[in-house]
Amino acid sequence: MISGFYLWWPRQWTVSVFKVIGIPTLRFKGKQREFNWHNAIGFWSAPWLFLIVLTGIIMIYPWANDLLYRATGNEPPARSAMAPPSPDAKGSRGDKKIARKTHSRSANFSAYFAAAEKQSPAWLSMNLRLPQGNRPNVMVVIEEPSSPNAYGRSLLTLDANTAEVIKWEPYEGYNLGRKLRIWVRALHTGEAGGVFGQIIAALAVLGAMVSVFTGFNLSFRRFFLK
After folding, report:
1. Which class for 74: exposed (0-12), middle (13-18), buried (19 or more C-beta within 10 A)?
2. Per-residue pLDDT of the chain in tens (226 residues, 90 and over written 9)
3. Cβ neighbours of residue 169 closer than 8 Å, sequence gap 6 or more
4. Residues with Cβ within 8 Å of residue 203, at least 6 apart in sequence
5. Alpha carbon distances (Å) from 196 to 87, 153, 187
6. Cα–Cα distance between 1 and 9 in angstroms, integer?
7. What is the pTM of this model?
8. Cβ atoms 125, 151 nearer than 8 A
C-alpha cells in the first residue's frame, strides 16, 4: 500500500490529473479503464486497508501486541490472559462435559447469574464460561451500558463451587493499553463504527480485490500483449 501511494502520487497536481487517477469511471475501456480503476479504487481503499492490516498485525503477532502496551506505559499481559472470551462465543462440547462432571459439587446457574447481576445491576448481556482446561473458575463476560464497542466487556471471575466473587475487572478500570487492544479488534472488523464501519471495511476489501484483478491485467497487457 505504501509503495502503491508512491507510484500513484502525481508529479503535478491538477483537477484533470486527479480525475484520471482519483475518480473511478465507466467512460474508459480496455487498458485505460483498468488503469483508472486500479489507481482510483486503490487510492480510496488504501487508508482503510492500511488500518485493517495494521490492527491485524497487532492481533496476530505477539511483538506488535506487546509494543502497543509498552507504548502506553503498561506491561503486556501474560499470553494466557491476552484476550478475554469473545462476547458472542458459544459453549463448546467440552463445556457441557465439564458441566456434567462438576454439577454435583458446583453452584447452579442461578447462583452464578445472581452474583453477576449483583456485581453489575445495569448489565445488557452476559456470557457465561464454565471451567475448562487450566481455567478452574467460572468467567462471566458482561456487556454494560458504558461498553464503547462490541468487545468492550467487563470480566467477572467466580468460584465454581460457591459462586463467590474472585475477581472483578470492570472495563472502566482497564489500563490504556488494554482499552486500545480492545479497540484494535473493533477497528479491524469495522464494528467500531457500527453498520457504517462494517460497510466501509467491506468496500475496502472489495476495492483490494479489484486492485489485484486490474493489476494482474495491466501486467499481462504490458508483458504479453505488446
Report:
1. middle
2. 788 778 888 888 888 888 878 888 888 888 888 888 998 998 899 999 999 999 999 999 999 999 999 999 999 988 754 444 444 444 444 444 444 444 445 678 899 999 999 999 999 999 999 887 777 899 999 999 888 887 889 999 999 989 999 999 999 999 999 999 999 999 999 888 889 999 999 999 999 999 999 989 888 888 887 6
3. 154, 155, 156, 157
4. 45, 48
5. 21, 22, 12
6. 12
7. 0.70
8. no
Distances (CA, A) of 149 to 68, 81, 171: 19, 20, 11
At 182, the amino acid letter reads: I
> How far is Cα 39 from Cα 9, in angstroms, rounded to an integer?
10
d(CA 11, CA 133): 60
Distance CA(151)–CA(111), nearest Å, equals 25
- Order the strands of the 154-158 sheet from edge to edge: 125-129, 138-143, 154-158, 165-169
User: Which grid coordinates belong to 122?
Assistant: 445495569
Q: What is the largest CA-CA distance in the chain?
A: 78
Residue 161, SS3 per DSSP: coil
Cβ neighbours of residue 200 under 8 Å, at least 6 residues apart?
Answer: 48, 190, 193
Q: Which amino acid, residue 206?
A: L
Nearest residue to 152 (alpha-carbon basis) of 201, 186, 118: 186
DSSP strands (E only) in 86-205: 125-129, 138-143, 154-158, 165-169
